[in-house]
Amino acid sequence: MKKIKQISLLIVLCVFVSINTSAQVVEDFQPSPVNQPGSAYPQVNSEGRVRTQIMAPDAKYVQLDIGGVKYDMVKDEDGLWTGESAPQDVGFHYYQLNIDGASVPDPGSLFFYGACRYGSGIEVPSDDQDIFAKKDVPHGHVHEIYFPSESTQTDRRAYVYTPPGYDRESSEQYPVLYLQHGYCENETSWPIQGRANFIMDNLIAEGKATPFIIVMTYGMTNEISFGGLRNFDIKPFQTVLVDELIPYVDANFRTLADQEHRAMAGLSMGGFETRLITLNRPDVFSHYGLFSGGVYKSEELADHKNLKLVFMSCGSKERPDGVKSAATELKTAGFNAVSYISEGTAHEFHTWRRSLHQMAQLLFK
């Protein structure tokens, strides 16, 4: 009996050691590339764990809130709180700190608009981050513009990417991609978190993409509560986009102002908007892109004349089978349909950066 107890104890100890060993944190943390200048934290290690610090000597508890999970942080004798997350997927993530029940940005991070607020962001390194790196290549420009909107009685903001060489004295005209953000994001999301301009600069420099203009504006998606998304009415934004923004862009930039040279794509809720608008107005766009934003069926596109491309994508941790089967069904029906699955990512910006990188190489060929 004594021997059995000793063996049982040994087994328990082995399991305990195994669990502790597997849970040990690799201490090779490095500052995130999207930190405030001079800030050593937040940091990321080779496992994708995020570690942050904040000085809050009077706080009773502090948590790191990332990926829908809150991780308790530990205070030292000086009042400095430190804590880290479980491994995160590669790419960009929004996060915040919770101090005594109040959710606040981490002062060590740059601020980004996402999750319906300005807050913190972290970049978990990936093997393919070269696709959006700022390289020694010719760069385009991102213009902040305001266009009149009679339907909303406001001047609305948009960002317009023009490719390298656009500003030279030339009469060259360019195709246009209208690119939409997701729910609880805005027109800053693609040029900042998405790094759309660097993705395009690099592709153009490599000769992999036709130079084109990208227009990014607010999709009016945040004006309804999350629980009411199914009741979202696309008509007000469709009016802003089709009847107000597109004519303004065509009048103020050197565009090829016709359906053949106009595309629309979006991520998540922006993909949902893209799907609805392209189904309502097939006369306006000839290239469609849904990034984690649903799929098309062949019967929906039966009367879409001059449709050049249908691109659908998602992360491998989402519902890739649905995207792949939808593309297969469209191909069988005779459409130029392409599916793309971002390996190892979910409903997050690296999925959508990769999606833009893939779709951009197919546009306006």
Automatic annotation (TrEMBL):
InterPro entries: AB_hydrolase_fold, Esterase-like, Ig-like_fold, Ig_E-set, Mycobacterial_A85_antigen. Keywords: Signal. It holds the Pfam family Esterase. It comes from the Bacteria. GO terms for molecular function: acyltransferase activity, transferring groups other than amino-acyl groups. Residues 1-23 form the signal peptide. This is Esterase. It comes from Sunxiuqinia dokdonensis.
